[in-house]
Write a structure and sequence with these properties.
By secondary structure, the protein is α+β, with helices and mostly antiparallel strands. It is built from seven helices and 13 strands. Strands 1, 2, 3, 4, 12 and 13 form a six-stranded antiparallel beta sheet that branches. Associates with the pre-60S ribosomal particle.
């Protein structure tokens, strides 16, 4: 009788070998980029969205973007002047933490900073996001784009914490309802209400933090003067 694939045991040493090989490949790829590009940047990603990151990759197809596995990327670059694979790249390596990544490019600093400053995409905030503005629903009939909400939404609104009643078939608030305030870390009810009323309170953006000229180790861009 054929052995079920569900019962297949994968040795831990096998997965460890694959992981080690992948790390080694990433390290070599990053070091190759240090040889093939003039600049390396460390950047922050705010409100990560995979589809929008893909748009950035397409727009910068002549460059290379790496995101994730910060410890491996630090090792590839070298975190000290003694260990760095090229002059000055340890300055970038030591900033790799959290949701940060690397951009290798031949584009000058002003082009990099201006392009990423212009590429901002609004989206719905997610649970846990800290919002930079508030949103309040006024008392009275609830509307979206000046159109009254359907009566069928009233049970959903109540589940999301709104004290609504039906008035002539329209969900209605007797008093205003504060959905969120500036500085709130959103919960699921707040997220769903913001989506329902079409409020975009998150902005996807990649923010270049520090660039290094790999040829001479100098810092480039607006941070160079700091």
């Amino acid at each position: 009788m054929p052995r079920s694939k569900r019962n297949t045991t994968i040795a831990l040493t096998q997965t460890n070998k694959k992981d080690k090989a992948h790390k080694g490949q990433l390290i070599q790829t990053i070091r190759d980029c240090c040889e093939g590009f003039q600049y390396v940047w460390v950047f922050d990603v705010e409100h990560m969205r995979n589809n929008l990151l893909q748009e950035v990759r397409v727009a910068w197809k002549g460059s290379r973007i790496f995101l994730g596995r910060n410890a491996v990327m630090r090792k590839a670059l070298g975190a000290t002047p003694e260990d760095e694979c090229r002059l000055g790249v340890s300055k970038v390596a030591n900033l790799l933490e959290g949701s940060r990544g690397l951009l290798f490019t031949n584009e000058p600093a002003d082009v990099v900073e201006e392009w990423f400053e212009s590429f901002k995409k609004q989206d719905f905030a997610r649970s846990g996001n800290v919002v930079q503005e508030g949103f309040t629903l006024p008392a009275g009939p609830l509307k979206i784009d000046d159109q009254p909400l359907a009566h069928s939404l009233e049970p959903q609104l109540r589940k999301l914490g709104l004290s609504t009643t039906l008035n002539r078939g329209v969900p209605t608030l007797a008093n205003e309802h504060v959905v969120c305030k500036k500085g709130d870390a959103l919960n699921s009810n707040q997220v769903n209400l913001l989506k329902l009323f079409g409020r975009y309170l998150a902005t996807f953006q990649i923010v270049p933090r520090l660039g290094v000229n790999i040829h001479d180790g100098s810092v480039v861009g607006s941070k160079a003067a700091e």
